[in-house]
Design goal:
Elements (H helix, E strand, L loop, with lengths): L3 H15 L6 H17 L4 H15 L2 H4 L4 H16 L15 E7 L5 H14 L4 E5 L5 H14 L3 E2 L7 H14 L4 E5 L8 H14 L3 E7 L4 H14 L3 E5 L8 H10 L3 E5 L7 E3 L2 H9 L1
Parallel strand pairs: 1-4, 1-5, 2-3, 2-4, 5-6, 6-7
Antiparallel strand pairs: 7-8
Helix pairs in contact: 1-2, 1-5, 2-3, 3-5, 5-12, 6-7, 8-9, 10-11
The structure holds guanosine-5'-diphosphate (GDP).
GO molecular function, one term: 7S RNA binding
Subunit structure: Part of the signal recognition particle protein translocation system, which is composed of SRP and FtsY.
Organism: Novibacillus thermophilus
Length: about 300
Amino acid sequence: MAFEGLAERLQATLKKLRGKGKVTEADVKEAMREVRLALLEADVNFKVVKDFVNRVKERAVDQEVMKSLTPGQQVIKVVNDELTQLMGGSQSKLAQSHRPPTVVMMVGLQGAGKTTTTAKLARYLQKQNHHPMLVACDVYRPAAIKQLQVLGEQLNVPVFAKGENDRPVSIAQEAVTKAKEEHCDYVLIDTAGRLHVDEELMSELADMREAVSPDEILLVVDAMTGQDAVNVAERFHRELELSGVVLTKLDGDTRGGAALSVKAVTGCPIKFVGMGEKVDALEPFHPDRMAGRILG
Ligand code: GDP
């Protein structure tokens, strides 16, 4: 399960505080030393860890907390609040344009789960009575076009695709026009991915952004890759101004580093998480629920 090691360590540390009738500054410091190590071990960005621990300490070593009837529980509440804030505070919802269709560009590196996530998002929208259209712009990988077509058929969602020789930017433009004609209210564009972030990829994505003025640019990253995922997010955000992140493979045994660092490092909220390979395995991300799950 995701975050298992982190959850176990944090829960064990905070358990020591829970029942205490009196909590001293030294108790808080000791607990925060352990919290710091647990977060670092979960591959959370070191600067994020430092700021987090300082904020918790500052709020916890407060007279009102210390002198309350349940000081241990108050400290735990501070940790819970700060963890929630770290992951974005409240839920960050998918945009919905007042003038449909809402255009969503899905970007990311190969293997992150971009194509699968694009189909999952279509499924998610379909369940909310929307009419999405999938657009195959990953023309450098014919298998990706086929993959999207198969998924679209499975979901009964239209897939806009062209030959491998068409330019992704014009495919995207044509797709938006077609979506208007067919009364689709969401256009989900599966863009090309590469093995590494490179100039060519970025300039193609920037051209597409210019051409279709998306309401959302969602970066799909693999949670299993920890700080690498955060670095990828930083790069993409610098070049494209992302509106959000989708963290995939949270059903695996990821340590938690990406989920806990990406918002703090890039400023981009996590909007969805992938919880499996099936098309139904996509969930909106709730920072408070995730914090609750980690702290038990
Ligand atoms: P792309 O190259 O980024 O388009 O990646 P794909 O969509 O082809 O996905 C790569 C692999 O990751 C596939 O085997 C997917 O089934 C798998 N995958 C995607 N999302 C998830 C997820 O949330 N959990 C798990 N376990 N596997 C996933």
